[in-house]
Design a protein that fits this description.
The complex is a heterodimer of chains A (437) and B (250). Chain A is α+β, with helices and mostly antiparallel strands and 437 residues long. The termini of chain A are far apart. Chain A has 14 helices and 19 strands. Helices cover 22% and strands 24% of the residues of chain B. The chains are: A alpha+beta (437), B alpha/beta (250). The interface between A and B is large, with 37 and 43 residues.
Chain lengths: 437, 250
């Protein structure tokens, strides 16, 4: 800690009050020389010029990543089974058991939690906290974007898409997309491999371009390179090029923050953004077990406008609930949204794979009261009416029906939590405390 | 009318003093968070307060077990001041880590009951989730007049209440709160209604005087409607009445 004072006594007293060790270990002299002493002995004496610039800059080779993709091949799928498999996919299924091992209630200022809805098991998008000392109706929205698939194909597109996802999360949480800050966390392979470094350069370019497009500065970050597993007798196995983006946004009116999960039978459902997504690099292909080609979700600077439009509708108090479209596309988002609200949905966007399972930046499902729909449409011109909230526990996509029970089972049935409970029920008797069961 | 003063002692690692302070303030008291070092030095004295709230967190990093060192502080260093407070009939409320410390210090369930421990959750994990609590005794000043179930989060890894003689505790009416299901029926030690496997679904106990209450869940995190995860839907179980009961008893 650097303290601009000639009298450190108050700071040292504060440290002592909190049982924190603190000592004055040096001062800035301005003589451009780093001097370290051990008692009376000088052990380091270096010029600052050498410290800052003495080391020659390393030059590394990067190979540009080709974004060319093979044509998409025809695939067959069964809609219900595909949706259930997607809901159970490790990138999509419930992480609730993990999230609950972290305290997300401390300080009493949590407004929107990672899991919410009627029974607390529905996935939210962004979270909202009200930091101590915050006055009025303001809060802070936090969004996270990550995609485990696209980076292996096109790191630049991956970076755009995860930045967009983090921003979407903040918008759904009632955050203002005009007042955003971003953080980057790279997990990458060996940068001395030119192709790996090329991917990193492309991802960084996307961060630069997206930051300008979204008007959102990167304020911090953390990078982890050389993430390569080397088996005792095998080829080095690097992690997928992965970027986790955190977006932090200001919530200006806590009263209009949308709820997690659909809320009320009869309300309109709107789709914000393009009806079709891309299937290249999709979780749909992951479930099918192969890359069937086709473009990955592209960089989409135009999504900025949709974020701002939706934020405007939220600020106007027109949005009851919303959910962003990410891994698994519209069908997965609709299923999660219905699960969180324990209500049904009747949605019609056609039955193509790209409409149901395609992935693309800047898309949302939004629940609006029928009486507010006209005003909503005026504020969000890219929105398309796609259906309604229903009372029966069924999610419908046109003629295809999936019972909510099956959605819940697929989504939540893979956490291992229940099995764990069963495995340890013998503990009580072993303690021999004489407690009556 | 002067607002009663609540002392909230904090150790390194305490993290819910802010929440507890807010809850007491909302209930009409003036709360002051005070590091134990300031109590040791005598800068702040227990005798100047009318209530005592021992907050949650990870005091001393939970070294040697949750609440253990804070319990030793209470039973050792501060025993005279605590005894003075008990003589003055100062209501004491320990939440989560504060409850663990009161149990470690022997103040709960109290010298007239067999000892208890708050040990590892049956799941073996720390867990943060909202629970339903039924007030099951009117004995304590903190529960006096409470009839409706409360809802608030648990956030602990060592919350399973175990005692040698639960029946004696029940007979003495010292089980203050039990975990229940959403419909008010007993959690019957089933997860997640009973989040930690506590015997008898015990979430909180009081001492024989009714002045000292310990509770694993965090009622201080549900004193305003907007803290409820069911905000905008069917909110219920606001915990403010518990703090009001304690504050208005002095």
């Amino acid at each position: 800690m650097v303290v601009a004072t000639s009298d450190p006594a108050p700071l040292l007293a504060l440290a002592q009050r909190w049982s924190v060790g603190a000592a004055v270990i040096g001062t800035f002299t301005g003589d451009r020389q780093l001097v370290v002493r051990d008692g009376g002995t000088k052990v380091i004496d270096l010029s600052c010029a050498f410290l800052h610039d003495g080391r020659p800059q390393r030059r590394m080779k990067a190979l540009a990543v080709s974004a060319l993709r093979p044509e998409r091949s025809e695939v067959t799928f069964e809609t219900v089974q595909m949706l259930l498999d997607l809901l159970a996919h490790p990138s999509i299924r419930s992480n609730e058991a993990v999230v609950r091992t972290f305290d997300h209630e401390v300080l009493g200022g949590t407004l929107v939690r990672p899991y919410g809805g009627v029974l607390g098991d529905g996935p939210g998008d962004g979270t909202v906290v009200i930091p101590p000392g915050t006055s009025g109706q303001r809060g802070m929205a936090l969004g996270i974007g990550v995609n485990a698939v696209i980076g292996t194909i096109d790191p630049e597109a991956m970076a755009w898409n995860v930045i967009d996802e983090a921003v979407r999360n903040v918008v759904v949480a009632g955050g203002d997309p005009m007042e955003l800050s971003l953080l980057d966390n790279f997990a990458w392979g060996d940068p001395t491999d030119p192709a790996t470094l090329g991917g990193l350069v492309a991802a960084c370019r996307a961060c630069h371009d997206a930051a300008l497009a979204f008007g959102a500065p990167f304020v911090s970050g953390k990078d982890s390179l050389y993430n390569v597993f080397i088996p005792p007798d095998g080829e080095p196995d690097p992690v997928a090029p992965t970027l986790v983006i955190t977006a932090v946004g200001l919530v200006k009116n806590l009263a209009v923050v949308p709820l997690t999960g659909v809320t009320e039978v009869g309300n309109d459902v709107w789709l914000v953004g393009p009806a079709d997504g891309e299937l290249g690099g999709s979780h749909f292909d992951r479930v099918l077990g192969a890359d069937h080609g086709g473009p990955v979700p592209p960089a989409d600077p135009g999504a900025v406008e949709r974020h701002r439009d939706l934020a405007g509708a939220i600020a106007a108090g027109l949005v009851r609930s919303a959910h962003d479209l990410s891994e698994g596309g519209l069908a997965v988002a609709a299923a999660e949204w219905a699960l969180a609200g324990r209500l049904g949905l009747d949605i019609d966007v056609g039955d193509t794979a790209s409409a149901l399972f395609g992935e693309r930046a800047g898309r949302y499902l939004v629940e609006v009261k029928v009486a507010d729909s006209e005003r909503f449409r005026a504020l969000v011109p890219s929105a398309m009416w796609v259906g309604s909230v229903t009372s029966d526990p069924v999610v419908r996509f046109g003629d295809t029906e999936i019972e909510l029970d099956r959605i819940v089972a697929a989504y939540t049935g893979h956490g291992g939590w229940v099995d764990h409970q069963h495995a340890t029920t013998g503990v009580e008797t072993e303690m021999k405390t004489g407690v009556k069961p | 009318m002067t607002r009663p003063r609540v002392l909230i002692p904090i150790a390194p690692g305490t993290n819910r003093d802010h929440d507890l302070s807010q809850a007491f303030e909302a209930a009409g008291a003036t709360a002051q968070s005070v590091p134990l070092t300031a109590l040791r030095s005598g800068d702040v004295q227990v005798k100047d307060f009318q209530l005592l709230g021992i907050p949650g967190g990870f005091s001393y990093g939970d070294a040697l077990g949750a609440g253990r060192l804070l319990g030793l502080d209470l039973a050792g260093w501060f025993s005279d001041q605590l005894r003075e407070a008990v003589t003055r009939e100062v209501p004491i409320f320990g939440v989560c880590n504060g409850f663990q410390a009161l149990v470690r210090a022997g103040l709960l369930p109290g010298a007239d009951q067999s000892p208890a421990v708050l040990t590892e959750n049956r799941s073996g994990r720390f867990e943060c989730r909202w629970v339903h609590l039924a007030p099951s005794s009117q004995k304590s000043v903190w529960t006096s007049g409470l009839t409706e179930p409360l809802r608030c989060p648990v956030a602990h890894g060592e919350g399973r209440f175990v005692t040698e003689d639960l029946a004696a505790l029940e007979t003495a009416d010292q089980v203050a709160f039990r975990y229940v299901e959403a419909d008010g029926s007993p959690a019957a030690q089933r997860y997640p209604g009973n989040p930690n496997g506590s015997a008898g679904d015990v979430a909180g106990v009081c001492d024989s005087s009714g002045l000292v209450l310990g509770l694993m869940p965090h009622p201080e995190d549900h004193v305003a409607e907007r803290q409820d995860p069911l905000r905008g839907r069917a909110t219920s179980g606001l915990c403010l009445p518990l703090f009001v009961a304690g504050v208005s008893s002095v």
